[in-house]
Amino acid sequence: MSTNPIRTSTGLRMLAASIILITASPAFAQFQKAEDAIKYRQSAFSVMGTHFGRIGAVVKGEVPYNKDDVAKNAAIIATLSTLPWQAFGAGTEGGKAQPAIWTEAAKFKAGSEKMQTAITELNQAAQSGNLDNIKKAFSAAGQTCKACHDDFRKK
Amino acid sequence: MSTNPIRTSTGLRMLAASIILITASPAFAQFQKAEDAIKYRQSAFSVMGTHFGRIGAVVKGEVPYNKDDVAKNAAIIATLSTLPWQAFGAGTEGGKAQPAIWTEAAKFKAGSEKMQTAITELNQAAQSGNLDNIKKAFSAAGQTCKACHDDFRKK
Q1: How is residue A96 annotated by DSSP?
Q2: What are the Cα distances from residue B45, in Å, to B79, B87, B96, B147?
Q3: Is the CB of A83 less than 8 angstroms away from the CB of B43?
Q4: Residues B90 and B28 sit within 8 Å (Cβ to Cβ)
Q5: In order along chain B (155 residues), what is the average pLDDT of each group of 10 residues?
Q6: In B, what residues contact A, Cβ < 8 A?
Q7: Do A54 and B30 touch (CB under 8 A)?
Q8: Per-residue pLDDT for A21 more than 90?
Q9: Contacts of residue A44 in chain B, CB cutoff 8 Å?
Q10: Backbone φ/ψ region at A48: left (φ over 0), alpha (ψ -120 to 50), beta
Q11: A136-153, pLDDT tens digit by residue?
């Protein structure tokens, strides 16, 4: 008895579909539940915001410039700036996230990359210790934060 | 008319007391409010826990070992492990923090330093890429987490 070619083909298609599902679903596979992803990205943004605010206080002249402090804050921000994006996978709607994050995914991704580039530049300025460059890079980075908040974060 | 020396002395003592208060209070001066400090430390611990858990999954054999992934996770943990402690200043009681954090401050500080040392060792093992060393360092680091949670975190 030969195997029914139609059944085999169907079986193969189902297997292929399963593989696609398995490889496609890890959008938030790093997180057990959507709530975990939401908590993670909010936490990463929160810590990042604290350290960004500390450089902001120096830029605004509220706190005297100290090279080491600004360099440390910028390095922390640089590490954190890479983290939240992995936690916006399919099925993780909620929190302050606007639906546009998923309906305009390419725009959101471009914004996140722009921000990471700006933060890398802020970190370079901070490590080199030139306050004028820090101010410029801080302002540019702040604008990338705001752009995404305007479009993708609930008010 | 000469200035009353007793009044002057009292004034100086009050001034001295004010200076001590000003210099002593920045325990959480980096944070505007106690709630900000609590949110900050909880967020830092939360992100750290996520990445620690990812190495844990490799150590337990649930996820195949990938040197780059473990190294990245360990570097993130190393950065984050230095952060929460600044947010346990006087007046920041609350959240999951046990009062013992402030009544047994030296023990808490020693615990936090032990943890940071263990995380540095985990990061070294992760960067060098020796899975056996990673497993040992992960276990040692996990014990420093647990020790503080047992003594200082609300159940």
Answers
A1: T
A2: 11, 11, 11, 15
A3: no
A4: yes
A5: 48 49 49 95 98 98 97 98 96 96 97 98 98 98 97 95
A6: 30-31, 36, 39-40, 42-44, 46-47, 50, 54, 75-76, 79-80, 83
A7: yes
A8: no
A9: 43, 47
A10: alpha
A11: 999 999 999 999 999 999
> What is the value of pTM for the model shown?
0.83
Kindly tell me the burial class for residue A103, based on how many C-beta atoms sit within 10 Å of its own C-beta (0-12, 13-18, 19 or more): exposed
Q: For residues B11 and A133, give the distance between their C-alpha atoms in angstroms, rounded to a whole number.
A: 45
CB contacts, 8 Å: A47 with chain B: 40, 43-44, 47, 80, 83
CA B147 – CA B149 distance, rounded (Å): 6
Contact A51, A81 (CB under 8 A): no
Q: Is B79 left (phi over 0), alpha (psi -120 to 50) or beta?
A: alpha
Structure tokens at B108: 């808490």
Give every CB contact of residue A152 below 8 A, 6+ residues apart in sequence. Answer: A97, A98, A100, A101, A108, A111
Among A47, A51, A73, A80, pick the best mutation site for testing chain B contact (most B Cβ within 10 A). Answer: A47
Q: By CA distance, what is B45's nearest residue in A?
A: A43
CA separation for the pair B71, B140 (Å, rounded): 17
